[in-house]
Amino acid sequence: MWPWPVAGGGVGSRGGPRFWRQPGLQLCCLRGVLLMALAPALVACGLPRQTKSAVPSPAVVAPDLRDWLTAGGVRDSAWLAVDRRHPAPPGFGLYSVLLTRTASPQAVRVLAELLSSSTSATEAAIARRNLNLVALPTRDAAAANALLASARAEPAPTATTLLQRHYDYGQAALLLASVCRPARGAAVMRACGSVTPDGPILVTTQRELDPAAPPGQRLLIVNLGNASPAAVAEIIAAYRRQVMRREFDDRDELDGWRLSLLNAALDAARLLPGIRKAYAGEP
Prior knowledge:
- This protein is α/β, with parallel strands linked by helices.
- It has ten helices and six strands.
- The longest helix has 23 residues.
- It starts with 22 loop residues before the first helix and ends with a helix.
């Protein structure tokens, strides 16, 4: 088996046939994977560009979808530090939470990407009903939100400090235990990977996640613990697109073949001599 880490999934065995260890065949396979990933973009270059005037006729829009579009739906994501005394405010379109057991480099990377790609819920120019709120569980929300004032300018240092000094790992463990359990079904367990995942994991629901809530609520679970570091930005972007869908939990954006091939190509690049150093940022 070869290592094919998929967005939100686990990592397979690291073994493989002997011919995979031959540098020439490695490079050939990597080129093939990259060409497959780029094929849609190459085909799109030969197609006529669609102008903004090419808007679908309202007559073909289903009534329930028309209601969703009229209400605006979820149009963006925003983050906010919360604590056990100050839970997430009411009125948001969707509620998400970033869960991790440790301040790992991957957790810092994911949080920094969230901070840099979206804005604070207190500064968002969009109505709450059109926002997906990404809650960050902390021990003191006031202190954490004061730190987050510099998040857009310095996302990585801010993420590191928040995870090391303010993050509530006890609350995160409690929420992870309530989500990643067999009673929630096979699909949830596949996304979690185990009953005790380290994270970081994004969990999205229609209401604020409640550890005491019984199984049955709609969940979108994105496990980035084993995602290739260089793919984190693309996975977060796909996640932000996914929560803007009416069926936010259908995973179409996250389980698409493009993200799978991106992860595969990046992981293959790590195995090739020379490319491995560039991938890791080594001289």
